[in-house]
Design goal:
This is DNA primase/polymerase bifunctional N-terminal domain-containing protein. Helices cover about 35% and strands about 20% of the residues. The chain is α+β, with helices and mostly antiparallel strands. Helix 1 packs across helix 2 and helix 3 crosses helix 6.
Length: about 170
């Protein structure tokens, strides 16, 4: 299960304080790749790296509409803050289409029985660089708070469980 305690990583910290944390997280993420140096090169050159799932983490692909219904907003800042508070772990937003999809990173050995598909071994995920954003197609909705910290699937299931009842009440 993911550790839910973490140091604050908001904009309140200076860039100098964030650099070692970002480097540690980037190094941890790069270890998911068979050649971590290639992942680092992909981030440096294009802002994203293709990382295989199943070793360090899996991803649950949640349609943007479902996340927005659960959160009660489609404002990116509001959604990011709500996801951070609910999930306390890394979430990637794909911005290529409409409301996009969200990829919630979860431990590979965790149980998932929710309404969204789980992506596992044999799948590659486009993972943005930690720190300054360089990619127009994907970004961190919630960056990893620290290396190794992932989302708890039970928290994701609880959040998504609120989406349908709230949608039924709305106009």
């Amino acid at each position: 299960m993911a550790d839910t305690t973490s140091p604050e990583t908001s904009g309140e910290s200076s860039g100098g304080e964030q650099a070692p944390l970002h480097a540690a997280i980037r190094c941890w993420l790069a270890r998911a790749h068979p050649s971590p140096r290639q992942a680092e090169s992909e981030w440096a050159n294009g802002g994203v790296a293709m990382l295989p799932l199943g070793k360090l983490f899996d991803a649950v692909r949640v349609p943007g509409q479902l996340i927005h219904a659960a959160v009660g907003s489609d404002d990116p800042h509001t959604v990011d803050e709500a996801l951070s508070n609910w999930l306390r772990g890394p979430v990637i937003r794909d911005t290529r289409i409409g409301s996009g999809s969200y990829y919630v990173l979860v431990p590979p050995d965790s149980q998932w029985e929710g309404p969204a598909p789980r992506l596992r071994e044999g799948t590659y995920l486009t993972v943005p660089r930690i720190g300054r954003q360089m990619s127009p197609v994907t970004s961190w909705a919630v960056p990893p708070p620290r290396r190794g910290q992932l989302c708890d699937p039970a928290h994701l299931a609880a959040l998504l469980g609120t989406a349908e009842p709230l949608k039924a009440i709305g106009p």
